[in-house]
Write a structure and sequence with these properties.
Layout (H helix, E strand, L loop, with lengths): L1 E2 L6 H9 L33 E8 L2 E13 L2 E10 L2 E3 L4 H5 L2 E4 L11 H13 L5 H20 L5 H33 L9 E6 L1 H8 L2 H14 L1 H7 L10 E6 L4 E2 L5 H23 L4 E4 L8 H14 L3 E5 L14 E5 L2 E5 L2
Parallel strand pairs: 1-11, 1-12, 6-10, 10-11
Antiparallel strand pairs: 2-3, 3-4, 4-5, 7-8, 8-9, 12-13
Helix pairs in contact: 3-5, 4-5, 5-7, 5-9, 9-10
Length: 357
């Protein structure tokens, strides 16, 4: 448990841990904006101290040293490019991190997940998939790169048919694979989430979109052909809109409160929070059952927004699962029921001090 006053650095520590998996971390900040700002190092654009996160992980196969950070050009100039080391060796892709660790987080900002944009929900689903299918990160990255390149070519009028066809082929192959992995993971989670866990409601989950409909209607190869054709047909329209009509970037996660038969975005704020926690706990149980791998949970200020019944149920579930969980809170009293059962640390001005409870 990490306690301390607001602005002391509790969330910064969770953000550091969130970089142990692929992606931009829990704040989705640019890599060159993550480092702590210090006098003399943030005067100009792009000037920051280089930063890194290093951990030693105990696994059934022994200890693994993992390091990741922002690549430095010089002592105070960094690039917006991430590097990854595993046991001292540079790895070409962040995707390797998904093979070593699963890390999931809940932050106050995510309380709006069900009413936020579909892009936020897709990112949430993709993080869930990473824990079951490490290659998913590479497919998502390749799809998004092809999507951006196609949009750039169309926007600037450089519509070389062969080049566009190559990008659309990548979008078709990677996009259908991404959609299929999302559907499979969410379907398995739906089986678990449909059952209530104590005070946390049962939830119905599904991924929806044109691609998902195509996968319902026929094999993946046929869906790839349909997406290639749809992208080629939409070139002129996409040139005017600056985007891409069909594709895996249009899919969405739909969640329902089963007991109330109510879409999550129409539930109360407290019910939405409970549904979100139910999904994360179900994912943790599924990984433990299927992979024998229990994710690390980063729960930022989660206790402050739960009633006492759900708060105690969350603590009990985490301890029963045996997950390594990092919880933050300004009020240490919220964690009083687990004094003696968890480690407590106080953070003030970025300094971490163990406390005895």
């Amino acid at each position: 448990m990490l306690t301390g006053s607001n602005g002391a650095g509790k969330t910064n520590l969770l953000e550091a841990l969130s970089f142990l998996v692929p992606g931009q971390g829990l704040r989705r900040a640019r890599l060159d904006e993550v480092a702590r700002r210090e006098s003399g190092f943030a005067d100009g654009a792009g000037k920051r101290r280089p930063w890194a996160v290093a951990v030693r992980v105990n696994t059934p196969d022994g200890e693994i040293d993992i390091g990741t950070g922002c690549e430095a050009i010089s002592n105070n100039v960094v690039m917006n490019r991430r590097i990854v080391h595993v046991d001292g060796q540079v790895r070409k892709s962040q995707a390797v991190l998904s093979e070593l660790l699963s890390v999931y987080w809940l932050t106050p900002y995510m309380d709006r997940l069900f009413t936020d944009s579909s892009a936020s929900r897709r990112r949430f689903v993709d993080r869930l998939v990473f824990g079951f299918d490490p290659a998913h990160a590479g497919r998502v990255s390749a799809y998004n790169h092809a999507l951006r390149e196609r949009a750039r070519l169309l926007r600037h009028g450089r519509a070389d048919p062969e080049w566009l066809a190559a990008l659309e082929d990548t979008m078709a192959r990677k996009g259908i694979a991404v959609a299929a992995a999302r559907r499979e993971t969410v379907s398995r989670l739906d089986n678990i989430c449909s059952k209530e866990t104590g005070p946390f409601p049962g939830a119905g989950l599904a991924v929806t979109g044109d691609i998902e409909n195509w996968l319902d209607e026929g094999p993946a190869l046929e869906a790839e052909d349909r997406l290639r054709a749809a992208l080629a047909k939409a070139r002129r329209t996409d040139m005017e809109s600056g985007g891409a009509g069909p594709g895996a970037h249009r899919s969405d996660l739909v969640v329902r409160h089963l007991a109330k038969e109510c879409p999550a975005d129409q539930c109360s704020t407290g019910e939405q929070k409970a549904l979100l926690i139910a999904v994360v706990l179900a994912n943790t149980r599924l990984q433990a059952a299927e992979r024998g791998k229990i994710p690390i949970l980063l729960l930022d200020e989660v206790a402050a927004h739960l009633d006492i019944r759900r708060r105690e149920a969350l603590f009990s579930e985490i301890m029963a699962l045996g997950s390594q969980a990092w919880l933050t809170g300004a009020d240490a009293g919220l964690f009083s029921s687990i004094y003696g059962k968890a480690q407590f640390f106080n953070i003030e001005d970025g300094v971490v001090t163990p406390t005895i409870r």
